[in-house]
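Minutes, project check-in

Agenda point 3 was the complex the collaborators sent over. CS summarized: two entities, 584 residues total, and the question is how they sit relative to each other. Sequences were read into the notes so everyone works from the same version.
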Amino acid sequence: MKSEFKVIANLLPNNTRVLDVGCGDGSLMSLLRKDKNIEVRGLELNQNNVQQCIHKGLPVIQGNAETELHQFPNQSFDYVILSQTLQAFYDPNKVMRELLRIGKSVIVSIPNFGFWKVRINLLFFGKMPVTKTLPNTWYNTPNLHMCTIKDLFNYCEDKRIKIKRVIGINNDKTSLINNNNLEIKNFFSEIGIFLIG
Amino acid sequence: MPSLAGLFFWMNIKLENIRKLEVSKPLKLDCGKTINNFPLAYETYGKLNSDKNNAILVFHALTGDQYVTGTNPITNKEGWWVTAVGPGKAIDTNKYFVICANVIGGCMGSLGPRNINPETNQPYGLNFPVITIRDMVRAQETLLENLGIKKLLCATGGSMGGMQLLQFCSTFPDKTFSAIPIACSASHSAQNIALNELARQSIMADPVWDNGKYFLKNVQPKNGLAVARMVGHISYLSEKGMQEKFGRKLQEKADYEFSFNADFQVESYLRHQGYAFVERFDANSILYITRAMDYFDLSKQFKGGLVEAFKNQRTKFLVISFSSDWLYTTKDNKDIVIALNASGADVSYSEITTDKGHDSFLLDEPDFLKTLKGFIDSMYEKFKNEK
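CS then shared the predicted structure for the full assembly.
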């Protein structure tokens, strides 16, 4: 299982209500329901993934998070999760506002564009980076708005969104990120996970 | 009930062979009238297990009937949902007990306009009370009671069957563990009503219809009813599906005939469908059932709108729509999902990508059938464990 999912699961208390936006085949939802008795809901665009969720008995709505989050009432979930898709939206700012409207808290994870391997690709090779978390090339990547952990950190401060916890992942090792170690963690973390709202 | 054999001789329907429940409990209809001691025709498939937790209720659509699968004993044709229901199918009758009842207002054994009105000793015709989707559903609930089923594993239906299902869940919130409304709507749109009106007007324009009294002469307004059916068939296909199926292909001829015969395959198809239909369906039933569909507006029954209709739902929903369905669109189905979501209900939704239009739910659409099966099987596991 993805170490990112373990980190997200650890952030969530038992018996809560969680919406997983872009839930894929429901792996995270299954884990949360089984281990933490969490009442899960998913939103997923891909029909195959939706089918797999339904086969697992997981409630999932087929739809596009960019345009269809409006259907969820205000503060109707304890937590809303968005795993590594924020950068793929046309309007990430709008999506972020929607997530914060729907969830009492929001967990957002991003592939960190500030990760050292990414920087080296661009700095020394003059090429758009292709890494484990950014597997596509420039012309077929779904990612429209790449950002770094530092960018998202600053975004939350600018928008006065409360940052409750930030965790960096590098090679399955996790570490807490705060104002003091932001520069170094932004360099060494491949994925950033933000608990906000 | 007086015997109906021979009354509609052209249909060749042996109504005595139909399995029926005689409902003695009076049913107060939405129009204000009350019916009692009326027949409700139904069929079942598979076996009810000892825990009585494997029952699935299927609601049929406008021109459907209780013969979901196998061979329809009246028409000798395949059941209308043989693609989805049967041994080893998505709704597996080796595993589940499937129930389907003919709607009241219909013509396959349940009380309808061609039944004998005890007050006049003649068929009701237009003296039959105008019925609603809620009336249909309330009648069918008595059947569950009669079969000793406290809670269904699942209830499902497409098109008007989906409307009945939404009404059923709203009126009887604790009667089914799960529900699959398919290609339906929580209220009939102007376009839906317009198409139904077209069907009704074509029946009424047939002089044989004679204000619904054609039964006195033992005839049926075939031409009007056939046109009504043709309207329906156009609305069940998508533009693309129709183009692919027929295009401008000619019907068994090399060139135009320069006449008004069915030159095009699509014309021939519509005529065939239209005139085949009159052999099995009663024209007045079409009037009554389409009226019930037009009156259907679930939110109207609740001041707070559709969200209120689904308040306190514990039923687990799976809403399914088809991308090329223009009769009950993806948007119509999504509105149901939005309302269910807003009411806090447990709801899943899938839009099946297909060119086959509204008809898709009756066809062999692998993604659709897989989704159906996955949901029902997973619900069965949950329902068993809940008890």
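Noted in discussion: Chain A touches chain B at residues 47, 50-51, 53-63, 71-73, 76 (CB under 8 Å).
Follow-up: revisit at the next meeting once the mutant set is ready.
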